[in-house]
Each structure stands twice: as C-alpha cells, then as structure tokens.
C-alpha cells in the first residue's frame, strides 16, 4: 500500500513497536506535530545514515503530547508502527516546512523459528550476565520478536538499519544469533581482562602449583 507521509529524518533507527520520546524544538517539526494532531495522522522517521536520508524508515504514531513549553517546544511520546520504503522524497512537503514523501509499506513475513528464538534467549542471558545487566532480560516479553531486542544487542546504526530492511523474521533471527555468537567471546575476554586489571596491585591469595 502506498501513501504520502510527513517525514522526520533522524540519525537513529526506530523499530516497529518501539516507544520513542522526542523533544520537538525546530519550527518545521513543531508544524509536523501540529498537523498530526489536527489530522490524527502519522509521520515517518527514516534513518539519516551515511550523510543522507535512507530509503527505509518506520511509520510513527503520536501517542501523547507530554509537555508544551512557552516557546512552542514540546515533549511527545510516540510509538513505531510498520516499516516503509520511500518511493519519492520531497525536501519540503507541498506547502509545509517539513519533508515528506510517497512511501510504500514493507510487508513483514512472520516466519519465526522457535529453535533459533530459544538460542537467542540463551545467548542474551550469557551476554547480559557477562555485562552485569541481566535485569534487561526480565523486561523481555516471553513471545519476543527480533525488533524487541534489536536495540539491546550492541549493534551500530548501520547494523540496525540492515536489520530494519530485512522483512523476514527468520532471517532477522539468524542475523541476531550470528551477531551474538561473534560478540560473546569478545565480551567474555574483555570481562576477564577487567578482572585481571582489578587484581593488579592487590594482595593475592594464590595456591602455588605442585612441581
């Protein structure tokens, strides 16, 4: 399905289902938010990546204006909906200050693999335990998707953008599992290194080897 969306490029990747709080201060984006309130419409956040507006982004629903300032600035709460691809980009939407574009919805293929999902949960447990942040796992829904964990994997923006462009849950799961398998040995070694560094200068209770 194609439609025209107001666009708010940002140098982040927003995933479907993600809740995002934004402080709005530029005149063009104040106008965008006012238009969304008036029309009960949505807007798009395409990733601004490699010094340009990426072709892919996430449609965003405005949930609530949390605070309005005397300057006209606003704090807003939003949530990601589906993924889109930009077909035509306008630096300024007709008659508006902000950008806009003709976009098409990217269909998501719900083809998750349960075995891969279990492996991902196990690897996440290992990662968060090694980093001392295992509480994050407690917040994870039982039936989590790849998008639910995407920001908690240590991916850079380019890697997150690659994940966003993939329209198959099974393929995203494979990408995530591969990343975790690559990063876990590095994290484990880093943690060991930290422990070795901390031990230096302290009195050590060591058992001499028998020889």
From TrEMBL:
Pfam family, one: LON_substr_bdg
Residues forming coiled coils: none
Record SUPFAM superfamilies: PUA domain-like
SMART domains assigned: LON (SM00464)
InterPro entries registered for this protein in UniProt: Lon_prtase_N, Lon_prtase_N_sf, PUA-like_sf
Domain Lon N-terminal: 4-182
PANTHER family tied to this protein: ATP-DEPENDENT PROTEASE LA (LON) DOMAIN PROTEIN
Name under which the protein is recorded: Lon N-terminal domain-containing protein
Species per Swiss-Prot/TrEMBL record: Pontibacter lucknowensis
Upper lineage: Bacteria, Pseudomonadati, Bacteroidota, Cytophagia, Cytophagales
């Amino acid at each position: 399905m194609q439609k025209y969306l107001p666009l708010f490029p940002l140098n982040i990747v927003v995933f479907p289902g993600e809740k995002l709080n934004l402080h709005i201060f530029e005149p063009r984006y104040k106008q965008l938010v006012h238009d969304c309130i008036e029309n009960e419409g949505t807007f798009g956040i395409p990733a601004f990546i490699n010094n340009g507006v990426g072709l892919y982004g996430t449609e965003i629903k405005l949930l609530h204006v949390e605070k309005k300032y005397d300057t006209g600035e606003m704090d807003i709460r939003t949530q990601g909906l589906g993924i889109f691809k930009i077909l035509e980009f306008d630096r300024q939407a007709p008659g508006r200050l902000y950008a806009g574009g003709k976009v098409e919805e990217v269909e998501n293929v719900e083809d998750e693999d349960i075995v891969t999902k279990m492996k991902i949960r196990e690897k996440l447990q290992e990662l968060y335990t090694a980093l001392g942040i295992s509480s994050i796992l407690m917040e994870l829904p039982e039936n989590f998707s790849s998008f639910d964990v995407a920001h908690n994997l240590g991916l850079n923006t380019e890697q997150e953008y690659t994940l966003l462009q993939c329209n198959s849950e099974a393929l995203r799961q494979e990408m995530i599992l591969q990343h975790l398998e690559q990063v876990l040995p590095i994290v484990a070694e880093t943690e060991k290194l930290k422990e070795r560094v901390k031990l230096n200068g302290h009195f050590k209770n060591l058992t001499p080897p028998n020889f």
